[in-house]
Write a structure and sequence with these properties.
This protein is mostly helical. It has one domain. Helices cover about 75% and strands about 0% of the residues. The protein is built from 2 helices and no strands. It is rod-shaped.
């Protein structure tokens, strides 16, 4: 029968082995945690994009309303309604 040698670990070897095992166990947890944070961030980005798109639609609608109210035909109609005459030289456009 062959004599089996017992493997003796020194203090440094034990520390290195503990670190390697810890890394092997913690790496998947860190990956899952970081993917979870990334997923949450992506969901928040999509939520904000949706809000921005809705606000853009509202802004476009309001700009169309402004343009409609500022149109020449509307101004002439309001002027007629109040008994005013339209003289082009008296109009000052402020932007």
């Amino acid at each position: 029968m062959a004599k089996q040698k017992k493997l003796k670990l020194r203090g440094v070897d034990k520390v290195m082995l503990t670190i390697l095992i810890s890394l092997a166990l913690l790496t998947p947890l860190v990956v899952v945690f970081s993917k979870s944070i990334l997923s949450r961030s992506n969901i928040e980005v999509e939520r904000i994009k949706s809000k921005v798109e809705k606000q853009d639609t509202i802004n476009e609608s309001l700009m169309m309303k402004i343009n409609e109210l500022a149109s020449l035909s509307n101004i002439q109609g309001v002027a007629k309604e109040f008994g005013l005459s339209y003289i082009n030289d008296n109009i000052i456009v402020i932007k």
